[in-house]
Amino acid sequence: MIRTIFVAAVAALFGALPASAQTKVVPDSEAAITYSYAPIVKQAAPAVVNVYSSRVVRQSNMPPFFNDPFFRRFFGGPDAFGQRERVQKSLGSGVVVDPSGFVVTNAHVIDGADEVKVALSDRREFEAEVVLKDERTDLAVLKIEGDKPFPALEFADSDALEVGDIVLAIGDPFGVGQTVTSGIVSALARTQVGVSDYGFFIQTDAPINPGNSGGALLDMHGRVVGINTAIYSRSGGSHGIGFAIPANMVRLVVASAQSGGDLMRPWFGASVQEVTPDIADSLGMERPVGVLVANLHPKGPAAIAGLKTGDVIVAVEGNEVLDPNAFRYRIATRGVDTETTLDVISRGETQTIKVALIAPPEEPARDARDLDGPSPLTGIRAANLSPAVAEELSLDSEATGVVVVSLRRGSPAQRVGFRVGDTIYEINGETIETSEQLDAYVKERRRSWQVTIVRDGRMVTSVFGG
Question: How far apart are alpha carbons 25 and 401 in whole angstroms?
């Protein structure tokens, strides 16, 4: 088998074998396991780059014991000792995905960077512009300029991957220089990794170490099937469990950067929850699979398509979904202004429903207000919640009310513990419905403030003053 895989893959690179010969079979002799990855690596390695980022960190020269209020009373605060600047550097990997110079890497590789440089395998270095950075997918797209086209890699269809497929990881682990490792796809659709909002990863045992972040995970045709982004480790080194962002998600982020626009995610118009064994049993399902429709926006695509609360979505475009993370990934990779097909169990019957995905609308208008006055909410920038605002803040797109979109540093609101994403539900027993209403309310002086917010799906009430 293995010889056939590699001979077919190498031949595909050079056009020697037809597609029909590129089959997967079990090796049946010693000769069948004699192979080399060299042709694939020679083709792919020039397009895998090093990404260097740096930022200036300012630190106080104040001795540690001057944190004691007694010493600070006599000698002054941090400003009395001045500050020193230190350049903090980080190293990661990246992949050139367009000959014009578009490079994809992880967002955490360039987080907070004042300067980003890209070094090619031939040792040329280029200043890089950050074109798009998306923390929710942990992806960033850079742009470098050169006199001639750069070597670039193509994306594969990551949905075509199977557990057991052989893959190569190329990157710069620990800064030792470009390194190639091999392994197999250990698992697909890993959703409990906790690296990004769209938790849906390819798991591989190809050794991945610090510095590999942003590097390429390749199939046997030299195409990018994923961007290496995380490892499971208790020591900081590779334990054979690495995770890569699937190419189908990466492709969408790169396309947004190439078009010069912001990354636009499709709006489904419903929130979903996991189908537990108890829920599956109550619905007469043989096993807990799919996601349960929990809430519907009355004007959202899901409601318009005919979905109802309590329906169970078991597949998107024929791909089975096991939990909300997998569902969000499938919807996100469909893109805006597309139609997607869902397999749904509704009232005990299985049916197919087509949903037209659109950009999240800004209805109602956000009407952002900077709150000021004699209240603990001073320093908050509040806006009306709409699907568009909810998308920006990673909130439930069906939520309504008034939300904290930003906080002024050092403001009363920040000091008492308000956070971006808090929905201000009620003040002193009065329900808050619009930013205009909230703005007018906080301008009045009151003896005490009882504020109820919604944070991470839970209501929290705090009392200030009085």
Answer: 58
Query: In this predicted structure, which of 8-22, 27-41, 236-250 has the lowest mean pLDDT?
Result: 8-22
The CA distances from residue 254 to 30, 38, 143, 228, 403, in Å, are 43, 28, 11, 16, 30
Q: Name the amino acid, one letter, at 328.
A: R
- Locate 325 and state its tokens: 């993370």
Query: Which tokens hold the place of 451?
Result: 């504020």
Report the SS3 class of residue 248: helix
Instruction: Please give the Cα distance from 191 to 189 (Å, whole number).
Output: 6
Sign of CA dihedral 8, 10, 13, 17: negative
Q: Are strands 458-465 and 448-455 parallel, antiparallel or unpaired?
A: antiparallel
Give per-residue pLDDT as tens, 38-95.
889 999 999 999 999 876 655 555 555 455 555 455 555 555 555 555 555 668 899 9
Using the 8-state DSSP alphabet, how is residue 238 labeled? -
Contact 133, 143 (CB under 8 A): no
Q: Cis omega (within 30 of 0) on the bond before 364?
A: yes
Minimum mean pLDDT range among 80-94, 177-191, 334-348, 448-462: 80-94
Question: In this structure, are residues 328 and 310 in contact, taking their beta carbons and an 8 Å threshold?
Answer: no
- In 3D space, the residue among 332, 300, 306 whose CA is nearest the CA of residue 198 turns out to be 332
Q: What DSSP letter does each residue of 399-443 carry, written as one string? A: --SEEEEEE-TT-HHHHHT--TT-EEEEETTEEP--HHHHHHHHT
Say whether pTM exceeds 0.85: no
Instruction: Provide the residue count of the chain.
Output: 466
Return the active site residues.
108, 138, 213
CB neighbourhood size of 352 (10 A): 9
Query: Tokens 């799906």 sit at which residue?
Result: 457
Query: Residue 351: which region, alpha, beta or left (left: phi > 0; alpha: psi -120 to 50)?
Result: beta
**Which tokens is 369 given?**
């207000």
Backbone torsions φ then ψ of 455, nearest 5 degrees: -135, 125
Taking alpha carbons only, the member of 216, 266, 263 closest to residue 92 is 216
Give dist(CA 174, CA 62) in Å, integer. 33
